[in-house]
Amino acid sequence: MKIESVATERLLLHPLSVPEGERIAAREPLPEDRWGEGYPGVGDLASVGAFLRRCAEDGDPGAFRTYQIRLAEGGLVVGGIGFHGPPGPDGSVTVGYGIVPGERGKGYASEALAAVIGIARSAGATVLRGDADPANAASHRVMERAGMRRAAVEGEDGGLVRFLVRLEP
């Protein structure tokens, strides 16, 4: 299934293909790949590995996949963002993201997350969730800036703070 890239003001969210994911997992960029320093990080490798397993077991995940976060100007890969899987029976999806250390604090994660919220809404999800370590105030701010709120009922879950946004068509 061909999924189009999603452009924001400063970013391009590039949907990974299986061959791209395999190159990232092997840390073997092609000469034309522009990976920022520190990419792929531990979180990127975990996300790409999960994406590749889902593709092998269940086929193409459509919009609910992993995306590279690229700068619109120049195409430098500054991180990754993606879904932990397709919507569950209740229509909810969980997202994870990360930005390379040298590019943090520039609002890229919030901008990418806002775009992913739009992707989830367009693809039929009803709730988008994100988790963060209780001490990770920067990640809390990212989710809040993107319109997510701390889950009042769920609160901390397994040592994580859960955020969510309800998606209305």
How would you describe what is shown here?
By secondary structure, this protein is an alpha+beta fold. It has four helices and nine strands; from the N terminus they run E-E-H-H-E-E-E-H-E-H-E-E-E. Strands 1, 2, 3, 4, 5, 6, 7, 8 and 9 form a nine-stranded mixed β-sheet that branches. A hairpin with a 2-residue loop joins strand 8 and strand 9. Helix 1 packs across helix 2 (42-58). The longest helix is centred in the first third of the chain and has 17 residues, at 42-58.
Based on the model shown, name its key terms.
single chain, 169 residues, alpha+beta, nine-stranded mixed β-sheet, 4 helices, 9 strands
List the helices and strands and how they pair.
Elements (H helix, E strand, L loop, with lengths): L5 E2 L3 E5 L2 H8 L16 H17 L7 E6 L5 E7 L8 E8 L8 H15 L4 E6 L4 H9 L3 E2 L5 E2 L2 E7 L3
Parallel strand pairs: 5-6
Antiparallel strand pairs: 1-2, 2-3, 3-4, 4-5, 6-9, 7-9, 8-9
Helix pairs in contact: 1-2, 3-4
Summarize the structure.
With 169 residues, the chain is of the alpha+beta class. The chain contains four helices and nine strands.
